[in-house]
Every structure is written in C-alpha cells, then in structure tokens.
Amino acid sequence: MNLFGIGFFEIVVILLIAFLVLGPASMIDTAKGLGKTLRQLQRAASEVPRLLSLDEEPEKETTPPRQQVSETPADDQGDRPVPRA
C-alpha cells in the first residue's frame, strides 16, 4: 500500500506519534474535524463540473398545476332564498 509516496509502516509510525502527542480524546476530535473537512471538499468538488457546464440548462423546478376555481357558487340548499307561501 502506497499512499502519497508513504508506505504502510510510515503511516503507522505517524499515527503512533500523533496518538502520543495529541492523546486519545484530542485525536478523536481531530479525526472528526478532518472527516468533516474532507466531506465538505468532496461536496464542493462534485459541484464544480455542474457549475462549469455551459451546455446544460439549469434544472427547473416543476410545480403541480393549480386547480381552477369555479366562479359560480355551488348549488346548495343553503345558498338559495327560501320561497314564501
């Protein structure tokens, strides 16, 4: 395994020194912060091709069509005047 020109043994030594210098609690917080930063970088990197694309049109939001409301009131018994005898 070769990561950035560093072998497995070198990575283990670096992690061991970081554990001794930072301590277990601080190392966990540092790893969480590094993970969040990498996640944000991945999201930003995935947005770059979409932003640079000039051929595609931006996605339009589709809204459902509105229902038309009748202008004449409903034919209920309560709406009509009662004839007097």
Textual characterization of the structure:
Helices cover 52% and strands 5% of the residues. It has 85 residues and is mainly alpha-helical. It has a domain at 2-50. A hairpin with a 2-residue loop joins strand 1 and strand 2 (6-7). The chain is elongated, with a radius of gyration of 33 Å.
Strand content: under 5%
Residue-averaged pLDDT: 76
Principal-axes shape call? elongated
The count of DSSP E runs of length 2 or more, i.e. the number of strands, is 2
Distance between the termini: 101 Å
State the major sheet: 2 strands, antiparallel
Record the strand order, biggest sheet.
1-2
Number of helices: 2
Nearest-angstrom radius of gyration?
A: 33 Å
Assembly state: single chain
Structural class: mainly alpha
Succession of helices and strands: EEHH
- How much helicity do the residues have? 40-55%
Task: Show unreliable segments.
Answer: none
Compact overview of the structure:
By secondary structure, this protein is mostly helical.
Task: Give descriptors for this structure.
2 strands; 85 residues; two-stranded antiparallel sheet; mainly alpha; elongated; 52% helix
